[in-house]
Design goal:
Elements (H helix, E strand, L loop, with lengths): L2 H34 L3 H19 L14
Helix pairs in contact: 1-2
Keywords: Cell membrane, Membrane, Transmembrane, Transmembrane helix
Subcellular location: Cell membrane
Protein name: Prokaryotic Cytochrome C oxidase subunit IV
Length: 72
């Protein structure tokens, strides 16, 4: 019935799941590396990369710099 609406949500859902798994994976990697005594600079780089994912996906910052004049 609403297959058009569902198909539009599929890419967003897939991207959301990917971001969730990426954040979980990087967090697990951070934990393992911290337990191994890796220099804090490496942990900072991983933390900043996670912040970048959050900013891009959840805060939609990339829309500010896009050239798409779509609706407005």
């Amino acid at each position: 019935m609403n297959s058009g609406k569902t198909s539009q949500k599929d890419p967003a859902l897939r991207r959301g799941v990917f971001v969730f798994l990426a954040l979980a994976g990087v967090t697990a990697l951070e934990y393992i590396l911290a337990r191994m005594g890796v220099p804090s600079a490496v942990l900072w780089i991983l933390a900043i990369s996670k912040a970048g994912l959050v900013i891009d996906f959840f805060m939609h910052i990339s829309r500010l710099f896009g050239t798409d004049e779509g609706g407005h």
